[in-house]
Amino acid sequence: MRSLSDKIFTSGFWSFTLEEANSFIGCNVYFHNKLKESSYRGGQIIGVELKKYKNKERILFTIEEKNENIGKPWNGDISIRQWYSIKHN
Question: Which of 2, 10, 30, 62 is 20 to 30 A off residue 53, Cα-Cα?
């Protein structure tokens, strides 16, 4: 994660198609260190960029931080691909 301003940050490099990633614009995302821990950061996805990372096309999300997205329990898939914590509003 990289802060762009007080309330805007980026998160990458996610393994989605550009079409999948664009469908998440306007959705909330919650970041957890562990499934059993509450979210430590979160916000609403406001932008998507396709970036090269380790010679692969990856997604970089721009996120508007929301304090109400902190302290939320895990609510999603428990498989290795845990991106299901991105929720449509």
Answer: 30
> 85: which residues sit within 8 A by CB, 6+ positions away?
29, 30, 32, 74, 75, 76
Contacts of 72 (CB under 8 A, 6+ apart): 30, 38, 39, 42
> Residue 69 corresponds to which tokens in the numbers above?
């997205």
**Interval 23-61: pLDDT, tens:** 999 999 988 888 888 899 999 999 999 999 889 999 999
Contact 14, 27 (CB under 8 A): no
d(CA 60, CA 76): 21
- Rounded to whole angstroms, how far apart are CA atoms 80 and 82? 6
Query: Residue 89 in contact with residue 50, Cβ under 8 Å?
Result: no
